[in-house]
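Query structure, 138 tokens:
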């Protein structure tokens, strides 16, 4: 599972809702094909890992893959049936804030048909609408 090795603070304030479009990470930078998020969402490290595994199964040993998002926000929960008060709950999982327009995964070194199939399989694992995009040569 993806998570930071070390953070300045173990628990953070609850983050504001992410809405709007991404300013950074909207272009395919490393590979030839990319998977773009079309809506904002908090993706957990488990969801990112499930998409990564499905991508690597389709790619097998061909090509190269980049993960452009990282879960760095801790989400805390208190146990069930615990009274109010007595502090903040423990960290349950980590999320990555993904805005609309953000490139999440990139692939290179495979034909377009294989890349499309890989991103279709990976997008089935994610709760976000996604779009297949190609690198634009300037």
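Result returned for the query:
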């Amino acid at each position: 599972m993806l998570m930071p090795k070390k953070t300045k603070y173990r628990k953070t304030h609850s983050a504001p809702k992410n809405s709007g479009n991404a300013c950074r990470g909207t272009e395919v930078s490393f590979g030839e094909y990319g998977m773009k998020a079309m809506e904002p969402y908090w993706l957990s490290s488990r969801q990112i890992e499930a998409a990564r595994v499905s991508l690597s199964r389709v790619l097998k040993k061909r090509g190269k893959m980049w993960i452009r998002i990282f879960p760095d926000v801790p989400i805390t929960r208190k146990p069930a049936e615990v009274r109010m008060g007595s502090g903040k709950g423990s960290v349950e999982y980590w999320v990555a804030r993904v805005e609309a327009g953000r490139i999440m995964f990139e692939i290179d070194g495979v034909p377009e048909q294989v890349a499309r199939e890989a991103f279709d399989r990976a997008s089935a694992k994610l709760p976000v609408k996604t779009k297949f995009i190609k690198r634009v040569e300037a």
